[in-house]
Amino acid sequence: MRNISVIGSGTMGNGIAHVFAQNGFDVSLIDISEAALTKGLATIEKNIDRQVKKGILKELDKPFILKRITTYTRVNDGVKNADLVIEAATENKEVKKQIFQRLEEFAPESAILATNTSSISITEIASQSKRPEMIIGMHFMNPVPIMQLVEVIRGYNTSDETTGIIMSLCEKIEKVPVEVNDYPGFISNRILMPMINEAIYSLHEGVAGVREIDTVMKLGMAHPMGPLQLADFIGLDVCLSILKVLYEGFNLPKYAPCPLLVNMVNAGHLGVKSGSGFYIHNKENKDLVVSPSFV
Ligand SMILES: NC(=O)c1ccc[n+]([C@@H]2O[C@H](COP(=O)([O-])OP(=O)(O)OC[C@H]3O[C@@H](n4cnc5c(N)ncnc54)[C@H](O)[C@@H]3O)[C@@H](O)[C@H]2O)c1
């Protein structure tokens, strides 16, 4: 494997491109939006500077890493020499299905096709493909240059060979891969999202306040961040859509999204991205302030 194509230059895509380029791979970074590519490259540069400051990289490495990344606005051009394509575009089933249709046509037949989806079934994404045994989930965690885990998800038809190649590739980029099967939420979100949902139910039912719930989980369970603060970081809309996938996928009431979460999303209180969720988020205020709705 030499040439890695990454589709989507947003939060995850630029991080994935960064990590592969840092480990000596040639990367084609593809996004339909020129602005997203510019922003993605700027983020990579900023994150390399941070790694230099921390002594993880040398200043001298920076131009070499950046030189290994080429940007494209058309999937057709960006995947034609790919050994591996990692799709990290918007979390929308139709968008992903369309991208995979184009990959059928434009990626080399020998290329493994991976998706970084956090909740869509790998088996369903592969269902239209002529090479379902070469389609796999590579679920990187945010922020990609820092987080060690890659959840490697086997679709129903993913072959042992494809899985083996991807597991050892993850080790080459200094990540820790964990193999899981393709069921709703995989492992990470199947466990994380019900915990977040239960924290929201506890708030909704008046068992405790925002700060109290987060403090119990931080100091009592040694979580680096409480579940409500984490939900704000992930985005309450993202949490809701993953819970819906679990609820619909398993058809069990234990995954039913808390009505408070549904209300907050409908009201546009999405967490960090909208400036307020369970906490208020603004650049001036570094201290965590609980949102007025919960005081
Ligand atoms: N953000 C997270 O914490 C996180 C964590 C793990 C996995 N994921 C998954 O990673 C994927 C990307 O998430 P993100 O947070 O980086 O999203 P994002 O919104 O930050 O970026 C998505 C990018 O995809 C681009 N895009 C949309 N349609 C495209 C197309 N047809 N071709 C090329 N580019 C296209 C958009 O322009 C955008 O720049 C999603 O599947 C998400 O579920 C996200």
What are the salient characteristics of this protein?
295 residues, alpha/beta, Rossmann fold, N-(1-d-carboxylethyl)-l-norvaline Dehydrogenase, domain 2, 2 domains, eight-stranded mixed sheet, two-stranded antiparallel ribbon, 12 helices, 45% helix, binds nicotinamide-adenine-dinucleotide
Number of strands: 10
Q: Which shape, going by the Cα principal axes?
A: globular
Number of helices: 12
What name does the CATH topology of the largest domain carry? Rossmann fold
Give the N-terminus to C-terminus distance in angstroms.
54 Å
Please name the fourth-level CATH homologous superfamily of the largest domain: NAD(P)-binding Rossmann-like Domain
- Physical arrangement of strands within the biggest beta sheet: 3-2-1-4-5-6-7-8
SSE order, as H and E?
EHEHHEHEHEHEEHEHHHHHEE
Could you say how many structural domains there are in total? 2
Strand content: 5-15%
Mean pLDDT across all amino acids: 96
CATH class of the largest domain: Alpha Beta
Poorly predicted ranges: none
In short:
By secondary structure, this protein is an alpha/beta fold. About 45% of the residues lie in helices and about 15% in strands. Strands 3-2-1-4-5-6-7-8 form an 8-stranded mixed beta sheet, sandwiched between helices.
